[in-house]
Amino acid sequence: MGFAGAPTQYFYTVLQQHLLLAFGWVLFGFFHSVLASGRLKRALFGRMPRLAPYYRAAYVLFAFATLGALLWWQLRIPSPLLLPAGWRFAGYILGAAGAILMVACIRKYFLSLSGLKSLFRHEVVAPELRIDGVHRYVRHPLYLGTFAFVWGLFLVVPYASMGITAFFIHAYTVLAIPFEEAKLVQDFGADYERYRRQVPRLWPRILK
Which end of the chain has less Cβ packing within 10 Å, N or C? Predict the structure, then answer.
């Protein structure tokens, strides 16, 4: 909805709600990073090693719960439109392509990504280096699909609140990738270094 003729108080109320949404995404990124850090997990598992097989699943549940709370707030607040409806068709195409890529990746490593494999076995399952399928073209196809999906969704429903969500998801992921890759180098050593030299991070070479 637009702000034409809206009272000043209403404008500032909506502005505060959008700032709160942005702050919520900052907090989400902060806690997501802290809980995923190797230092925290080493300290926690050193004192309570029995928690190790269940940590990933609990971490994923926490992430989904906080993500759901943010999306609930985003849908609840009134927000101005930023783009005309003419962008909607492009958004459907981009979002559908992103969703297909995301589903392909999640199906491939759902059990390990969700922590269910460790949960079912009651022991920590060693990570696997996946370089087949879409991973032959980009190192992080799930993130590429996520970017396409959230920005496609923004083109379909181009509200400021959706723009904030798309921006923070994109920015946080881009900032987090180098730390994730450093962990992958620790886990897989020369194999991942070789893979990183051969395959681009996010954009297939045909697009460069």
Answer: C
**Dmax over Cα atoms in the chain, in whole Å?**
62
Over residues 151-182, the pLDDT tens digits come to 999 999 999 999 999 999 999 999 999 988 98
Locate 82 and state its tokens: 């930023």
Last residue of a domain, one of 20, 53, 78: 78
Any idea what the CATH number is for the domain that residue 198 is in?
Answer: 1.20.120.1630
User: In whole angstroms, what is the distance from residue 127 CA to residue 117 CA?
Assistant: 11
Q: For tokens 């190797």, name the residue.
A: 38
Nearest to 97 by CA among 139, 136, 155, 169: 155
CA distance 207 to 137: 11
User: Residue 17 has which token pair?
Assistant: 């709600």
pTM to 2 decimals? Answer: 0.82
Rounded distance between C-alpha atoms, residue 121 and residue 136, angstroms: 30
Helix-, strand-, coil-residue percentages of the chain, each rounded to 5? 80, 0, 20
Amino acid at 71: L
